Amino acid sequence: MTVKAKKHLGQHFLNDESIAEKIADTLSLNGYKKILEIGPGMGVLTKYLLKKDITTYVIEIDSESVDYLKDSYLNLAPRIIEQDFLKYDLKEVFKGEPFAIIGNFPYNISTQIVFKTLEMRDQIPEFSGMFQKEVAQRICSKEGSKVYGILSVLAQAFYDADYLFTVPPSVFNPPPKVESGVLKLTRKKDYVLPCDDVLLFKVVKTAFQQRRKTLRNSLKTFNLSDSLREDVIFGKRPEQLSVQEFISLTQLIENDI
Ligand code: SAH
């Protein structure tokens, strides 16, 4: 059965079996018994996940894809969640259990997928899959890089981020306009931060909203004391700060009463 791809749902179906298998193999399967695939579409990746010794759930918003999956993978049927990943409360299915996330993700909601994963990091030890190449590179980039930004710092505060490989447009139907990149996030052993994480998110977002300014200027809205603003770190621009330095900066701001 062929299904016409729906652009507004970011549907670009992978038609290269070896790449699907390679993506399925990126998870270690250690430390959890369940995985959740976001946006299975016609199941090209799902097929390889189902061969593994792990329980696979899928979440898919498109009813046509869901009908196809139900007919094609009878054993999977009870674990197909026909919902919007961004809106659905995953605790309904996973309760407090750990699970990994995988997918050839819908690129139009890439950033939100990463943020939702970060919010649920207590339950998500591993995350891997395909994004638009620039987004995958950004998430994995280090300080000093032009593409280093909010997603890089916040993802790497909790996860080790590895860019794995690039995938050309030609292996998708229909081909996207951009190259794709597969990455893997592995939660750090010490992912509980020594600073207020809500404040960290605020500091990182505020600093990068004006990425050319020094922190002294961009973080004015935090009403910091003059003595703190003298600290050398405030003379830097956000792209110069490592993840560790952002954490230290947040601690400084936290203690600035
Ligand atoms: N994994 C498949 C399909 C990738 S295209 C493959 O590799 O061929 C992205 C898929 O995500 C589509 O099936 C689309 O319907 C689905 N999708 C888009 N937005 C979604 C959302 N908010 N929640 C769940 N699935 C979504």
End-to-end separation in angstroms reads: 64 Å
Order of helices and strands: EHEHEHEHEHEHHEEEHHHH
Assess the beta-strand content as a share of residues: 15-25%
Shape: elongated
Based on CA atoms alone, the radius of gyration comes out at 20 Å
Helix content: 25-40%
Give the mean pLDDT. Answer: 96
Q: How many domains make up the coordinates?
A: 2
Identify the CATH homologous superfamily of the largest domain: Vaccinia Virus protein VP39
Q: What would the CATH topology of the largest domain be?
A: Rossmann fold
Bound molecules: S-adenosyl-L-homocysteine
* Second-tier CATH architecture of the largest domain: 3-Layer(aba) Sandwich
Primary descriptors:
two-stranded antiparallel ribbon; 2 domains; Rossmann fold; alpha/beta; elongated; binds S-adenosyl-L-homocysteine; 7-stranded mixed beta sheet; 9 strands
